[in-house]
Write a structure and sequence with these properties.
This protein is mainly alpha-helical. It has one domain: Ferritin, core subunit, four-helix bundle (Ferritin), CATH 1.20.1260. About 60% of the residues lie in helices and about 0% in strands. Strands 1-2 form a two-stranded antiparallel sheet. The protein is globular and about 60 Å long.
Length: about 280
């Protein structure tokens, strides 16, 4: 599957989005059967399924572009995209691959990630690529339920006493620096902008995200959890361009949390039965 190591800008962008969703869904699924309550067991199981389904939808756009006449097996191509690539061909942000740790960290990551995803979908809903715009518009409605769930828990922990707020703060301090990498500039992003496929640069989406999460953190007395690189310039939140000097997950650079844990577990059955259909 080395063909996915070098792809066109549109495919690279779609892989980044789909891989974020797939790996996030996989990690959320670890709470099935062990969440702190039956309600949250069901909630995270549902969110996990949603995210994996959203990944499937994004992979389907790549599959259809590779076979515009519909002469091939689209389902096999989607499965191949999700489960048949080597680890270095995945383009998700490193945040998505981190272990669940404790429930407070999971909630902090959930809050940071889903707000970022809603920002991204709202931008892509204005894409000049009609297929991308249609998918983004549809998924935006579903993702808002994820944000409502994340916001509920953010408020509950932030105002739940010293212990709960402290655990949330620890989770945010771990999650937020890596959440910035959800907005790592995409390969050939200038071309995506010029072609109208991506309506706004990743840097602009990062600012939109910060405009949402920073006031919420300040209002909850958690402003100290913002990464040190994030600063105010006048009335705008900014992040130095040098922050992304080294290439991260969008370019296939991952940690052992992915290469030695998520990827082997997630792809085991697919690799054990090559060519199987389900």
């Amino acid at each position: 599957m080395n063909e996915y190591l070098t792809v066109d800008p549109r495919t690279a962008m779609l892989l980044a989005i789909a891989d974020d969703e797939l790996i996030t869904g996989h990690r959320h699924g670890h709470w099935t059967g062990v969440a702190p309550s039956l309600e949250e067991d069901l909630a995270f199981s549902t969110i996990s399924q949603d995210e994996i389904n959203h990944a499937d939808v994004w992979y389907s756009l790549i599959a259809s572009a590779r076979d515009p006449e519909g002469t091939g097996d689209a389902r096999r191509t989607v499965d191949e995209l999700g489960l048949g690539r080597p680890p270095e061909a995945y383009r998700h942000a490193v945040l998505c691959e981190r272990p669940p740790r404790d429930f407070a960290y999971t909630l902090a990551r959930h809050w940071a990630y889903d707000h970022a995803d809603v920002v991204r979908l709202a931008v892509l809903a204005d894409s000049e690529d009609a297929e991308i715009a249609a998918v983004a518009t549809k998924l935006l409605h579903e993702e808002r339920y994820h944000v409502e769930h994340a916001d509920h828990w953010f408020r509950r922990l932030a105002h739940g006493g010293d212990r709960a707020a402290g655990e949330l703060a620890a989770g945010l301090e771990a999650a937020l620096p890596e959440a910035l990498w959800l907005f790592e500039p995409l390969p050939e992003e200038d071309q995506l902008i010029a072609d109208g496929i991506l309506p706004a640069y990743s840097a602009a989406m990062l600012v939109r995200w910060l405009e949402i999460i920073a006031p919420a953190l300040e209002a909850a007395d958690l402003g100290g959890t913002l990464p040190a690189d994030v600063q105010m310039s006048g009335s705008n939140w900014v992040l130095p361009e040098s922050h992304f000097a080294e290439q991260g997950g969008r370019y296939g650079n991952h940690t052992e949390d992915f290469t030695e844990d998520v990827w082997p577990e997630m792809t085991h059955l697919y690799r054990a039965h090559p060519g199987a259909t389900w």
